[in-house]
Amino acid sequence: MLLISYNTLSRIVPVMTLLIDTTLTIGFVIASGGLESPLLFFALFPILTAALRFPWVISLLIAVAVVFGCGLAGYLIAPSGTLWSDLLPFMARSLVLLLAALISGLVGSRIKQAIARTRRLEEEAELRRLRTAHEQARVIFELASTLSATLNYNKVLEAVLEVGDTGMRELGPPESDYVSMVMLFSHNDLRIVASRHLSQRDQNVVFQGRRGVLAQALTTAEAVITDDPAADPELGQLVAMHNCRQAIVVPLRAGFENFGVVVFGSLQPDTYTEDHQDLLIAICNQAVVALQNAQLYQSLREEKERIVAVEEDARKKLARDLHDGPTQSIASIAMRVNYARMLLEKDPTRVGEELAHIEELARRTTKEIRHMLFTLRPLILETQGLQAALKQYISKLAETDTAPIHMEAAPKVDQLLDRNTQGVIFYILEEAIRNARKHARAENIWVRLYLQNGTFVAEVEDDGCGFDVDAVQVRYDERGSLGVINMYERAELIGGKLTIASGPGEGTRVTLTVPLQGGQARA
Question: pTM score, two decimals?
């Protein structure tokens, strides 16, 4: 109700004001002398007001009313003859007033039309801005919904291009021909991993990202527009860019890490506006998060597969060790027991000697089984740490192997590592020692534990026959008994690095480096 009353008053008040102004003006003119009044031209004020607020006819009617009122007053008040003697000056003043009313009305109409046109253009621009913001929000929401529904790396890239193409078309005039692509870093090079309207030849082009708009976008972390993509030192390698009149490059960046760029090319000049830049930047920001999630998911999958593979290798190794060691020994014991039974019937005097051999074989088998149980998960590793476990392991090896194993370790060096890391390091060193004993025919084996520049270092070195490292690495599958793959995989699980240095007749050195955390390294 209040709103209706306000709208009614807003229409009535200007009319009432104009009527009052006109009446007062006529009264002042008549009171100040009528036809000879110096205030006659003050009638221009309501005329101009009417010209600016109402149609031009109203201003003309006000002028006619003023002239008619003054003329009527003069006719009634002035003596006869005076009116006619002053008629020409009065008509001249009246004509000027009427012309002023007509001109001001026409000018006012033009001004009102210009104001209305400007207001309409502003409203249309505001409407377009709101529509653009709505479309951008809709596109971003659609992209977020699409990206949140998948962790597939390729689907993320395809969604970025699909939503980007749709959004670019909705923000500007539709095009039938355009170029778009996503480039990601791989081995320090930019490679096209998803594209639209690119030939197979263009898809195989490799970029350095060190020149032109690619380098500028990656360096400044901002969107870059070029009006001559064909002349760009890197984008110009693409045949599709030779037909483009404009291109925009938006970096895929998270923090200080560059993942790559998104490139859109248009066959029309002056296509990409600030709205396009804002849209692409928003899309790329969403894409970077999705790419990070996809990469993390892929890394977790690979890590899971690697852990499964490592555990499978460990089971295979245990099966081989059981087959080559205790299983063979137990089979040998069974054969010797049968042989002792035969001797008991044919040559009882030799039974005691055979039983002694059986006892020795049984004791050796017991040691082998205990040794295998120890290497699976030594209890001392949990209670006293890596150094104590290695010392006990070496002492157990000394019971069955004559080759001396020398251990050199910095005091309490293993206390800088957590228990899980110590367990992995123990398995790697155990495998390296086992390989040295089994294959190197070494006279001496050295085990070293020390710190170097905030990094834990473990070494196993022997003075054996050595081998060609490159040849063995090429034939991993054939030399699987060396457990090299298993060692490399376990080193990666703890963020370490394993290197093997050897040569025929030069011995072998296996080095494991594990970076320590900041606080641990300072300790």
Answer: 0.45
